[in-house]
Amino acid sequence: MHLTGVGRRYGALGPWVLRGVDLDVPPGTLMRVSGANGSGKSTLLRLLAGIDAPSEGRVTGRPRTAYVPERFPSSLPFTALGYLTHLGRVHGLRSAVATERARAWLERFGAAGHARTPLRELSKGTSQKVAVAQALLAEPELLILDEAWTGLDVDARAELDRTVGELTASGVAVVYVDHDPRRLAGAVDAAYRVEGAALLPDTGQVHEPAPRVTIVARGRAGAPLPAGLPEDARAELDAAGGATVTVPAAHSDTVLRALLRAEPPWHIRAVREPEAEPSPLSYADLSYVERGAEDR
Amino acid sequence: MNALFRYHSALLLRSQRWLPPVLVYGALVAVGAQPGDPVLDSLGYAAAALLPVAAWLARICATQEPPAARHVTAAATSPARTHLAALLTAAATAAALGAAGSALVMAMSDWWSADHRTPIAPVPGIVAGLLAVAVCALVGTALGALCTWPLLRSPGWSVMVTALAALLAVVTPGSPAQVVVTGLITGSRAGTAPVLVLPLAAAAVLAAAATAGACALTSRRT
């Protein structure tokens, strides 16, 4: 998708909220948009989502789009599953497929128990999970997240981070706004800042290195690494067929999937978080993995 | 469009916001059309009562999605398409309501002219009644679409302007609704049911133009 000289103002004589925005959103990009409150971030996201039309300039090459608002209203007279099925159909799915995917996404975000609950009775966080599920079940080519993490519990936030990593690795463009500068920090391909109605490349952002995960795997000696590893993965191969891959935590599942689905599959020996203190759980996981290797 | 229409219909049905306009229409018809009244008079009255109710339904359907939910559906399709689906839902509901009301009126009225001397032929009578329903549903939907979001956003003004516009549409000579309603009443005196196609065409053009205008504005106003 491409924005050319896009500007937006409300009313014929209103001040420009955004002006002269030239932006390219290629498939598979993870794009972060930051800016002060009321700077026009949400306006930019609405333009990208096609909810708003630009007052000047052009938007071309719009892919199938899904949007997650910051605060999802719970006043709709549907159950969670009923709403998601309707939205799945609106996205062009058949009813059965829509219901099935709605269940799967609710399950993944830990809201499966609320499938039959009326939206009015849901907590703010669970409503937000419904809003996220709505966008994901459509399998869009462009996903717009306007502070979609707000209100989600810790597990659901982590799940959304992982999902975003998987989506960008599979070619979906994701554009997001979040007040937490560390959100997906290591995986971002492009960062922009809205300031004084202009969209500027965000270079001054505090770059906390994202937690990187190390994956130790073994393949056939001399075998190359499989295709489909994320671009930000760093890999070292040794002559015996051992590989050490480090990757931002958000993309670890993508690496694992690529390794395990390779022909012949790679054997995963360990998954480690080097910067963080290893938790007892990860030790247990490790020893389990190692023992499994010896048993074989 | 099918899925959007289904979504908006379900929204209207489950929210029970349809109840007040339906009750008001029922009350208007019950007061104005008594059993045994001349059928064309009662049909004209039922059609005239439908017009403000159709405008009200259009207002309800255009604003029944909270903004965040509207953004979600608009991103999935387009703002214009989801607004079109909302207005189609309103028009279909108004037409169904009008058809039901007219059927009731036809069943309980006296199929004679106003002076009880000339019988009214059933087929032209039914056609004339349904034509009037279609015209009033279309004109009402058009007015409702023009008097609410995205054109008029303040609820107070919206209600006042809708009520005034609906009244004017029924009484202003030359308006499609006025022509069909007056046609039924004069037809009742003459003993012939007037089948007026021109007002229907005019109402359809008006509704299409109003809907297109409202839909085109949806992505310009938020």
Automatic annotation (TrEMBL), chain A:
Annotated ABC transporter domain residues: 1-221
InterPro entries reported for this sequence: AAA+_ATPase, ABC_transporter-like_ATP-bd, ABC_Transporter_VariousFunc, P-loop_NTPase
SMART domains reported in the protein's UniProt record: AAA
Keyword Coiled coil: no
Top-level lineage group: Bacteria
Molecular function per GO: ATP binding; ATP hydrolysis activity
Secretion signal span: none
Protein's name according to its UniProt entry: ATP-binding cassette domain-containing protein
Organism the protein comes from: Streptomyces boluensis
TrEMBL record, chain B:
Keywords: Membrane, Transmembrane, Transmembrane helix
The keyword Membrane is annotated on this UniProt entry: yes
Membrane listed as a keyword: yes
Entry superkingdom: Bacteria
Transmembrane portions of the chain: 83-106, 126-149, 156-175, 195-217
Protein name (database record): ABC transporter
